[in-house]
Write a structure and sequence with these properties.
This protein is an all-alpha fold and 500 residues long. The protein has a domain of 246 residues. It has 19 helices and no strands. The chain is globular, with a radius of gyration of 23 Å.
């Protein structure tokens, strides 16, 4: 009984405020993990339901419209929000100008989407439905411009307890509307309606969860001040989008809506284990690195400790997903989605590689060197776009995935060289961080592989037992290996425990 009381007290203490930076960061990490897990669980359930109600072509049509919206939106990013988080001094005087120019920017972008991007997207994808979708989706782009700029301060001040509730409530509203629309319409309009609902809820809840009330203020000097930093974030955002969505654009253009639906759902599932854990880390590391950017020793220590825990979770999750990919697709999404299995396995590898980017990028942003990310992305884009069209034509969506994997691997190696200069952590240092997780995950994969040969996974109960068995096997292997090789994972966990 006392044990459960202590767990309850520890959990409740996570939601309290703390003045100590270490406690803020450690608590923030746990809270963001809880929040992201909740949000992604909700989205995962939504995707399962929609996959049963809709068809790959529906996902592909919405994906084409979303690409057109995303390209137009990204081309006119200001980077003001990131500048506010990174800024060393007080930023209150810049909030109104950031909100004002953001609102005007969203109005301009939404009009551009409606009158120019929509017909261009329809022509590019050779699909008239895409034109209608893009014009409807231009509305929420304008709506989200009214979002309270105070929400950005929650991340800057490491107030992740409030940020979590904001994210979850917005997502719940979106999911309810999307599923309801899918039951009624049974087509891609359900996804469009859900996207509109998401923007409405984000605006409404932003004023509920933060007391700041923005005012219209055309402060040109304030906007220029934020743009000096934000311009690099804008350039990085543009290149990031082109690199991140170049595969979807290629599949949509060359292969059509159906293959795009398979590819995008594979991407969503395959990136889930690695990228979501890594994004948790990135969310808390950016403001942390901004605050301790002048202490390189503390930067390195904090970076290594958190990375060790994150990769101890990422690697086995990706390995287990790879081992059980056919069964997961069959039991979760249904037989109609079986063609996505080969694509999924390539995307799982991509997710693991991209997780490095998610934890390294905040380092460069936090120390005030966003240009490094820009150079790396340009390098990656050159490789990817030289490979993606021939590989897609030769091997379909699987070839598209391999083009992205090869370019991502090259960019991560370049990033490691830059990290070595910043905090003296090279390839050998990274290997030391995740070597035990790799070895334990390999043993887990072997266990699942031979277990599948002995037992056929022909019902949901057996499928779930495989998942639990794999998780238990990994826990046993990693615990044993950590004790043998110096208890580094245990010590990192203990550091987090003491911090919160």
């Amino acid at each position: 009984m006392i044990f459960f009381i202590k767990i309850k007290d520890k959990f409740l203490s996570l939601w309290g405020e703390s003045e100590a930076l270490g406690k803020k960061v450690a608590r923030g990490g746990v809270l963001i993990f809880i929040g992201r897990f909740a949000v992604k669980s909700i989205y995962f359930v939504k995707t399962i339901i929609l996959a049963r109600l809709l068809f790959p072509n529906d996902f592909g049509l919405f994906g084409m419209a979303a690409l057109a919206i995303g390209i137009t939106d990204t081309l006119f990013q200001t980077g003001f929000n990131s500048a506010i988080v990174q800024h060393k001094d007080e930023v209150d005087k810049h909030l109104n100008s950031a909100w004002t120019y953001g609102l005007l920017r969203n109005l301009f972008v939404s009009l551009l989407m409606f009158f120019i991007a929509a017909p261009l997207a329809g022509k590019f994808f050779n699909n008239g439905t895409v034109v209608v979708f893009v014009r409807v989706l231009a509305l929420p782009v304008f709506i989200v411009g009214f979002e309270n700029i105070g929400i950005v301060l929650l991340q800057r001040n490491l107030q992740f307890n409030k940020k979590i509730f904001f994210d979850i409530t917005s997502v719940i509203g979106e999911v309810v509307f999307t599923i309801g629309a899918a039951v009624i319409f049974r087509n891609a309009w359900a996804l469009v309606i859900g996207s509109i609902a998401n923007r409405f809820f984000m605006v409404i809840f932003s004023y509920i969860f933060h007391p700041y009330r923005p005012k219209f203020n055309l402060d040109l000097e304030g906007a220029k001040h934020l743009f000096r930093y934000g311009r690099w974030i804008s350039l990085v955002s543009i290149i990031t989008f082109l690199v991140g969505q170049g595969d979807n654009i290629t599949v949509g253009k060359l292969l059509g809506a159906r293959d795009l639906g398979f590819y995008q759902l594979s991407f969503t599932l395959g990136m889930l284990p690695a990228m979501e854990f890594a994004r948790v880390l990135g969310t808390i590391l950016f403001p942390l690195f901004s605050k301790i950017q002048n202490d390189r020793r503390l930067l390195r220590t904090s970076f290594v400790r958190v990375m060790r825990i994150i990769f101890a979770l990422i690697i086995p999750a990706s390995t287990g997903l790879f081992a059980l990919a056919p069964e997961i697709v069959r039991f979760v999404y249904g037989e109609r989605w079986a063609p996505m299995v080969p694509i999924l396995r390539v995307i799982i590898l991509l997710g693991f590689l991209k997780s490095f980017e998610q934890v390294i990028t905040p380092l460069f942003l936090g120390v005030g060197k966003p240009k490094i990310n820009l150079y790396i992305l340009i390098f990656q884009s050159i490789i990817m776009f030289s490979l993606i069209i021939p590989l897609t034509k030769a091997h379909g969506p699987v070839g598209t995935g391999w083009a992205v994997v090869i370019s991502t691997l090259a960019s991560q190696l370049a990033m490691l060289l830059m990290v070595r200069k910043e905090i003296n952590l090279g390839l050998k240092g990274f290997f030391e961080i995740f070597k035990l997780a790799v070895l334990a995950s390999g043993l887990m994969y072997i266990s699942i592989f031979y277990l599948k040969k002995m037992i056929a996974i022909d019902n949901l109960a057996i499928f779930l037992s495989f998942i639990f068995s794999g998780a238990a096997a990994y826990a046993l292997f990693i615990f044993t290996l950590d004790r043998i090789f110096g208890r580094k994972i245990f010590n990192s966990l203990n550091w987090i425990k003491k911090s919160i």
